[in-house]
Amino acid sequence: IGDVHGEHLLLDRLLHFIKKKIESKPKGLKVRIVFVGDYIDRGLNSKKTIDKLIEYDNSFKENNETNVHFLCGNHDEFFNKIMICNGICSDPINNLDFEKDPLQKLILNQQKKIYIRGLRAWFNVGGGKSTIIDYCPEIYNNLDFLLNKTFKNTIEQMTEVNSLIKKLKDSVPNNHKEFFSKIFINRYIIIGDYLFTHAGVNPFI
């Protein structure tokens, strides 16, 4: 199952179809359901999507014939970084590697902080706006104003951004945080002759 991206209504339809297929399978035939990541951002409701996935996973706990696997996508990876980070910090100054490599803005630095440019990229390009509206709508307008309308990277603004991000983190249910934490290391799974991953296979490693 590919990128769900918060489309919980479409996910419901797909899981209903899969349920009917499982019910009609011969007894003793084992089933593996592999989600390849990107469960949040962009879609109608990321929060309901994660609720549905957790519920779906729990429904097979007592079923030895069906296994559900959740791999980590890049959107899930960054959201988990937000959940575990020590805050948001200013971008490094005069750092050519940071300027040249677009992925540098999405990393946790040595202090386990996220660079402000990474937060802005997730908010404006990565679909983070919809996820924030799902989990913590009361911070959306202020965060949008700070990141885009008046952004000057001042100490006062960074303090306010961090206050809003803390509210976001506090609003995410613990079982959702556990979900993202568990899948964070699930980069791929091999089943028989098949390798499943979200993206980015290097055949020489």
Report on the architecture of this protein.
With 205 residues, this protein is mainly α. The protein is built from 9 helices and 6 strands; from the N terminus they run H-E-H-E-H-E-H-E-H-H-H-H-H-E-E. The strands form 3 sheets. Strands 1-2 form a two-stranded parallel ribbon. It has a two-stranded parallel sheet with strand order 3-4. Strand 3 (88-89), helix 4 (96-100) and strand 4 form a beta-alpha-beta unit. The model has no long low-confidence stretch (mean pLDDT 92).
Name a few traits of the molecule.
single chain, 205 residues, mainly alpha, two-stranded parallel sheet, 9 helices, 11% strand, globular
The helix count comes to 9
Poorly predicted runs of 5 or more residues: none
Q: Specify the biggest β-sheet.
A: 2 strands, parallel
Helical content, roughly? 40-55%
Topology order in helix (H) and strand (E) letters: HEHEHEHEHHHHHEE
Strand order of the largest sheet: 1-2
Rg estimate, integer Å:
19 Å
Average pLDDT confidence is 92
| Amino-to-carboxy terminus distance | 25 Å
Residue fraction in strands: 5-15%
Number of strands: 6
Structural class: mainly alpha
